[in-house]
């Protein structure tokens, strides 16, 4: 979560990003901007002097913007330079949150590229499935989250698993998340899946079912949830036979337990 001043700064920087992307001539421009913003975030994160200078509230906004522009001259596209300069000119609560803002903008640019290329649903689904694969393989998740291994090594491991099997935007997002997050890799990629859904105007419902849901059941559940949340809902379904029957649904921080095991647990609590 960002502090209030950083949330305001991020909202302002988004306006610049959207302006830049609206002026982009092609989907590839958004991919370039997103990729470059992630790279800039990595560079700023690794350079303490650069990081502090860009976030120094004691200097003027114009000075910070000009400094960012000068540092990036000839190293990234004009569009990316404009976004970074605008981001640096805003008031961030800390240099760490400035880096987080740059990274968030990079991810959003890539997701906008996916949407422009009619690949938003594909990227969202691939991120969800990748998160499930990682969470289901303890050895893999440990290897990807092992901070004693170089970032390049962990990134290469993930690329080996997904190269040629997912959209390039999915790969860029997933590899960056694994390389830069303090979360467990599966959780970090799950967060990206939710961000992808939000960028496509959808909410994500994580559904755990005792058995496979038919297409009709999925359609009815999605329609019910869409009515509740007043927005289209994407279902991500996991199977857990221990539920005995019914489903458990999680949307954001809300949890709806309609499973048999959940009802049994409620009855047991009432008998105590």
Automatic annotation (TrEMBL):
UniProt xrefs under Pfam families: OSCP (PF00213)
Principal subcellular localisation of the protein: membrane
Topological type in the membrane: Peripheral membrane protein
Domain of life of the native organism: Bacteria
Keyword Cell membrane: yes
Signal peptide start and end residues: none
Alphabetized UniProt keyword annotations: ATP synthesis, Cell membrane, CF(1), Hydrogen ion transport, Ion transport, Membrane, Transport
Entry keyword Transcription: no
Subcellular location: Cell membrane; Membrane
InterPro entries for the chain: ATP_synth_OSCP/delta_N_sf (IPR026015), ATPase_OSCP/d_CS (IPR020781), ATPase_OSCP/dsu (IPR000711)
Function according to Swiss-Prot or TrEMBL: This protein is part of the stalk that links CF(0) to CF(1). It either transmits conformational changes from CF(0) to CF(1) or is implicated in proton conduction. F(1)F(0) ATP synthase produces ATP from ADP in the presence of a proton or sodium gradient. F-type ATPases consist of two structural domains, F(1) containing the extramembraneous catalytic core and F(0) containing the membrane proton channel, linked together by a central stalk and a peripheral stalk. During catalysis, ATP synthesis in the catalytic domain of F(1) is coupled via a rotary mechanism of the central stalk subunits to proton translocation.
Similarity comment: Belongs to the ATPase delta chain family.
Entry protein name: ATP synthase subunit delta
Organism: Gordonia hydrophobica
């Amino acid at each position: 979560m960002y502090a209030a001043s950083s949330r305001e700064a991020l909202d302002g920087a988004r306006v610049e990003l959207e302006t830049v992307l609206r002026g982009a001539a092609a989907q590839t421009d958004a991919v370039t901007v997103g990729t470059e913003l992630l790279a800039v975030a990595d560079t700023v994160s690794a350079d303490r002097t650069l990081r502090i200078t860009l976030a120094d509230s004691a200097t003027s906004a114009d000075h910070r913007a000009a400094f960012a522009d000068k540092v990036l001259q000839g190293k990234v596209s004009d569009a990316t330079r404009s976004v970074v300069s605008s981001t640096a000119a805003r008031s961030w609560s800390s240099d760490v949150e400035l880096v987080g803002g740059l990274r968030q903008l990079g991810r959003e640019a890539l997701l906008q590229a996916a949407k422009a290329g009619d690949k938003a649903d594909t990227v969202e689904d691939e991120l969800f499935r990748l998160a499930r694969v990682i969470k289901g393989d303890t050895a893999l998740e440990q290897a990807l989250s092992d901070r004693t291994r170089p970032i390049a090594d962990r990134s290469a491991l993930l690329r080996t698993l997904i190269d040629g099997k997912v959209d390039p935007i999915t790969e860029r997002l997933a590899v960056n998340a694994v390389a830069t997050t303090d979360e467990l890799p599966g959780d970090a990629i799950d967060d990206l899946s939710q961000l992808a859904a939000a960028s496509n105007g959808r909410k994500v419902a994580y559904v755990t079912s005792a058995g496979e849901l038919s297409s009709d059941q999925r359609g009815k559940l999605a329609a019910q949830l869409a009515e509740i949340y007043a927005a289209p809902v994407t279902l991500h379904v996991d199977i857990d036979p221990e539920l005995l029957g019914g489903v458990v649904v999680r949307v954001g921080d809300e949890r709806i337990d309609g499973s048999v095991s959940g009802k049994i647990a409620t009855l047991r609590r009432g008998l105590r």
